UniProtKB/TrEMBL annotation:
GO terms (BP aspect): intracellular protein transmembrane transport; protein secretion; protein targeting; protein transport by the Sec complex
Bilayer-spanning residue ranges: 26-51
Full protein name: Protein translocase subunit SecE
Function statement: Essential subunit of the Sec protein translocation channel SecYEG. Clamps together the 2 halves of SecY. May contact the channel plug during translocation.
Record localization: Cell membrane; Membrane
Record carries keyword Nucleotide-binding: no
Entry GO CC: plasma membrane
Topology in membrane: Single-pass membrane protein
UniProt-recorded Gene Ontology molecular function terms: protein transmembrane transporter activity
Self-association and partners: Component of the Sec protein translocase complex. Heterotrimer consisting of SecY, SecE and SecG subunits. The heterotrimers can form oligomers, although 1 heterotrimer is thought to be able to translocate proteins. Interacts with the ribosome. Interacts with SecDF, and other proteins may be involved. Interacts with SecA.
Organism: Candidatus Yanofskybacteria bacterium RIFCSPLOWO2_01_FULL_43_22
């Protein structure tokens, strides 16, 4: 049990050194992640539609 207690004390000490982001930074980072995810989804969706059209036009007929 002593090792667990020591480990938790060290974790707490290390976490006190962390530079945590501000609320505005979190909001901005979240917006960037959502925007990039949506852009990627749209891009992949358009690729899927293009390949489906190509397959139907030239392969499947």
């Amino acid at each position: 049990m002593e090792k667990v207690t020591q480990f938790l004390k060290e974790v707490r000490h290390e976490l006190s050194k962390v530079s945590w982001p501000t609320k505005n930074q979190i909001i901005q980072y979240t917006a960037v992640v959502v925007a990039v995810s949506l852009a990627t989804a749209v891009f992949l969706g358009l690729l899927d539609l293009m390949f489906e059209w190509l397959l139907n036009k030239f392969v499947i007929k």
